[in-house]
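User: Okay, second chain of the day. Same drill as before: sequence in, structure tokens out.
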Amino acid sequence: MRRKIVSVFILCLVAHGVAISQVSSPNANFRIFPSTITQTEPVICVSPINRLVMFSSAVTVNTSSGFKSEGVYVTTNGGASWFGSDTCKGQNIQNHGGDPGVAIDKFGVFILNHIGNPSLITGVYSHYSSDMGANWSNAYTLTSQQPEDKGTTTSDNTPASPYYGRVYATWVNYVSPFPVLFSYTSNSGVNWSSPLSVNGTPPQRCSGGYVETGSDGKIYVVWAGVINISPYSEQYVGFASSTNGGNSWNVNQNIYAEGGINGILPSKSNIRVNGLPQIAVDNSGGARNGWLYIITTEKNLAPAGTDPDIILHRSSNAGLNWSAGIRVNQDAPNNGKIQYFPAMNIDSTGAINILFYDDRNTSSDSAEVFIARSQDGGNSWYERAVSEHRFKPKPIVGFASNYQGDHISMTSVGNKLYALWMDDYSGIYQVWCKIMDINTIGIRKIFNEVPDAFTLYQNYPNPFNPSTNIRFSIKDAQFVSLKVFDINGKVISTPVNQKLASGHYEVTFDSNILSSGLYFYRLTAGNYSETKKMVLVR
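Assistant: Same drill. Structure tokens below.
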């Protein structure tokens, strides 16, 4: 019956002029909505009442006519197929300027926020849809003042939260002293609260304004403090939290220094880039539940090198204190390779997943998309390429000079990660997606037959530089741990830390940040434990 309902619903969408885009192989890279319209800056959210329903959007432009809008892309089957349109049809249809923020509230209502068309009317506007994006309300004006164009939208989707169902929006007011503004709706976007300044009168101009919620209903906002002259370099990160739904805020204008990368990347056709901070909350209920994580792109400030690196800071006490910076990308420091535009998600296991562009394996004028994953709060990382193709970043025709977009996106549902980015591999900038099973990231199942025993094999090659492969066999389903130790017994990496089915597996261990010497790796599964040696030679 449910399949019939979905089929009828999709037929109704077709009748309303909404295009259908079928995806035949969701485990490979695919475009969620192939079209002839330029798409960039993807965002995505998940329904709290049906986790198979997701709503994605992007900045869209018809480069022939110059018409701009926001895409409306929907899946009702967990990403197996998508339908929608490159145009949000909420009136005034001519006043859509892109930079979408999306949410689905506790009633299943879609909310899409966007900036106005600067050539017509400035401001921030909101629409809602009660039929999965087929029809949209007229625009509600959150503000008619000019915003900086990088605000965010999120929803409180935790039923136990006192503010369950609220949708929050933040942005920077593009009028001196450039504070972070905040607004919310508690009635599915019918109206919004009057904008409130989160951080009063900031000591310097602000940029960004990224908002997330904890499972207890707390709201967290981060932003960058920037200098007042071009390229508006980011010098520090600001942080605020609210325990009463955003009515009042605890503010720290400067929690740590930032070496943000605002400006251009000459090697990549002078595209403009930023280091805008993003925050994520561990709502997994696990050992690090409630921990906060902030990512930026930085350079020339340790632990970042002289080229752009992805930098993480974490807090285990709701933002009262923050760790020193942690370099996420594990290629050699100061190697001239560039990482930029990180997106972060904390999945149901409490693991940190960070998506970003990377050129370590490409020529300097090109890029591919990487994921870095940590299962121990950021102490160690596994990395791999997500994109199955490379592209040459370049400014997009029809936008401001040097613009390729300002961010990419990531979310998770259960044991699946959804990575979204934009590139022009198809000949035009489009939103691409990769769906990944978190249980297999970093681990390759090489044979399916059931082993006779638990076995840890000698790594190969050995000695090695810079990476080596470790194989092991699991006799029956067990929680498996594979850890790497230095000669002093300190754990330096945990490539495997999860339940695995019986089978033969292989994992690659990368030693880019380690010095030459003797190391040990230990496999533990139930009562089985075995340790072997390996040698790194630089």
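Confidence is low (pLDDT under 50) at residues 1-17, 22-26.

User: Thanks, on to the next one.
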